[in-house]
Structure formats: structure tokens, C-alpha cells
Amino acid sequence: MFLKIENLSCHYGVIQALHNVSIEIEKKGIYAIIGANGAGKSSLISNSQMKRGGDKMLSKIVSNITPSATCELEGTVADLRHKGVDIIGMNAGEPDFQTPENIQRACEAAMAEGKTKYVNVPGIIEVREAIAKKLRRDNGVHYEPDQICVSTGAKQALNNAVLAVTNPGDEVIIPIPGWVSYVEIVKLVGGVPVCVECRPDYQLDLEKIEKAITPRTAAILINTPNNPTGAVYSRKSLEKLAELAAEHDFYIISDEVYEKLIYGDTKHECVASFSETAYEHTILINGMSKAYCMTGWRIGYTAAPKEIAQGINAIQGHTTSNSTTFVQWAAVEALENNDETIKAMVKEFSKRKDYAYGRLVRMEGIKCNNVDGAFYLLPDISYYFGKRYGEQQIRDSFDFCNYILNEAHVAIVPGAAFYAPNTVRIAYTNSMDKIVEGMNRIETALRKLK
């Protein structure tokens, strides 16, 4: 089934509607944000508490969006660590490896050479040429530099793309489970998110997607490899999706930021490369954060048909203008000279994935798909719903994560934030020693639940 989401105040309410979970909740005041109190324990904050600033109401747009659960959890973990609590982080959506030294040196050299001024809104020609070269080499798709816009992270690139093709009231299809920000980005531009569940193996369900298409459909927003499922969409499914986009004349906004993080014989497929028609109906999103360990550098990009690219440039010209100039020069170095670094990182992630997956599937009541990409596992933990330890009762994935945080001192993310309410997201973006210890702590905590 699929669900059109309008004027819902938080992810959790959407999940109840999608899965018929009967939990009594306060209208427009659903508890979904993990925080920390003075005792170092996690707590929950009502969405309704965030709607008023002083004596003035926030705008309807702000009141209609839900803060990012992953970002909020990062703050909670930082607070607990500041209080001296030994937290093992298995929540972070970023590589634990340092940015390669050659990238750092390129940035330092750019600053020393005075490359610190404004540049063209879509980016310096050198980085756009490097991106175009990368797209030809890695993805088999040709873009001119004037079809590329470099932004302050892939998240801004996504916002630019959605705003460029979505009018108020237009619908944007979002396969779920999906990243926490997709629905909110659509809502920010006045669009209507239409969430469509994936198959049990987390591949696209093309039948459900086709049924969800209406005359108001402006786009579908896909992410492959996927956060949080780790699925890599098959060529067959993407070819069918491209056919639907051409038939019904909507855009495929393809977030490919995890494309380098692929395991085994699986291959990443770039939908824009399939045909001229697919190319004309696709907006590519990518960035430097995941593959090049540059999360804090904030640099991403779009590649799009020329008319869309011009619109994106206009949007960015009135928001952030150019992304940080000297970071763009670092990105040139990253794109041209880091293949071996990426291979070594992927090899290490693969070892961690195999270990974490093996531990999880041996824990009582846990069900988990193995994954082909990204750096997340999404185990089903619903076996523990209704169980308790002392005063702590597990009613949903938020309770489960709070319990694991408080009892095991391991940070993981509620699956409800990704529209997968029976699951939690576990990131293997920590050292192997920490992952081993984290799994030991989780297993010990689970044995206490009765």
C-alpha cells in the first residue's frame, strides 16, 4: 500500500498510519526526539514543545516539519559523553576514517594561494570538469560542466533538486524505508510526500510505485545504495522505473552518495546512463562525504538536464551562492587521486559488516537482511516489543533504542525515523574493536528483557 502524507507533525505518526500500530499518542504532540537529562539518561521531547518561540508562533512550514532524528541523536550522544558516559556510537552516518592527507594538503594549498574569495555559484570550472570526468568514467554518462552545480553538501543538492521540479501540491514518491530528510525536504517546498513501501528484500516495488503515480506526480526520490537498508537497486528495477518516468513524465531524483560503498559482486547502476530518455528524466545527486570521508567539509553536487541545471543555479544563487571555495579545490584532488584509499576503506567496511551481521542474526529474536552497500544494517527487533527490564518497557523502536542507550551505552537509531517501525539502524562506522564491544553490550542487554 502507499500513503499520501500531508500535515503530519512527525515521522512516528506516519509510521502508525502505515503499519496500524495501536499506541495512544497525543495529537500533534508525538514524542519522537531523543534527548538527555541532567542524570545522563535519555529522554523524549514532545514535538508540540518546539512549536512556539517566545510569544510568537513559528511559521506553518517550520511547524509542519520534524527535526532529524539522526541529528538529534548525535547531540544526545555528545551530551552523554561530555558527562563522562562511555558511549559506543553505532549511529553515525559517516565514515570513521580521517579525510585522506592529500585532500587536506590540497585544501591547505588553496587557502595559502588565496583561493578564499567568491566564485561562480555552480562552482569553479576545475571541480565541475573533474565531476564530469568522474561521471563519464564511473557511471557512463556525459554531462557538460554547465549541467553541474556544486553545493554545500548533498543535502543542499537534494533541496535544490526538489525545489527545482516541485510546485506546491505536487506529489513526490519516496520508497520506504528511506532517509529521514526526504519527506521533510518535500514538505519544505509545499510538496506532498507519497511513501511507497519496498519489497521485503528492500528492492523497489514497481507495482506499488506504478499504482502511486497520479497526474500530480512530479518526481520520485530514490537512494541507491540505500540508507538505511543497505540495498542496491537492481538494473532491472531501475530500467522499469525509467520507463515509468518517461511514460508519466516525472523526474527521477537519484541520490547516489553511497555509490562507492559496494560489497562483493554487486554493481551500482546509474539510471541516467540507460538511455537518452532516462537521462532527460533524471537528476543525479552525489557528494564527497561518504566515499572520501569528507562529511564535515560539506560539498555535494547535482548533474541534470540543462534547463533543470539552470534552475538549480538560480535557486542556489539566492540561498548560499557558491560552496566554500577552498573546499572545492580539495574536492578536485579527491576526485582525481583517491581510488586506492576508497578500495581499502570498502575492504574494511566489508569485514565489519560481515561481523556485525553474523552477531545480530545469532541474537535471540533478531531478524536481519544482509546488505550489498552503504554502511548500515537494519535488523527487525519487534520480537522485543512488550518485554521489559525493571521499569523500562519496550513498546516500539524508540523505547528499544533508549533502553540500549541507557542499559548498554550503545547508540543506535530507531527504525521508525526511516519509516521502518519494527527495526533499528546500526552503522558499522566504528573500529572493529568498538563494534565487537558494542555487540557484546547489546546482546547482554537483550538477555535482561523478559
Automatic annotation (TrEMBL):
Protein keywords: Aminotransferase, Pyridoxal phosphate, Transferase
InterPro entries: ABC_transporter-like_ATP-bd, Aminotransferase_I/II_large, AspAT/PAT-like, P-loop_NTPase, PyrdxlP-dep_Trfase, PyrdxlP-dep_Trfase_major, PyrdxlP-dep_Trfase_small
The Aminotransferase class I/classII large domain, residue ranges: 86-437
Cofactor(s) of this protein: pyridoxal 5'-phosphate
Domain ABC transporter, chain residue ranges per copy: 18-47
Domain of life: Bacteria
Name listed for the protein in its UniProt record: Aspartate aminotransferase
UniProt source species: Blautia hydrogenotrophica (strain DSM 10507 / JCM 14656 / S5a33) (Ruminococcus hydrogenotrophicus)
Phylogenetic lineage: Bacteria, Bacillati, Bacillota, Clostridia, Lachnospirales
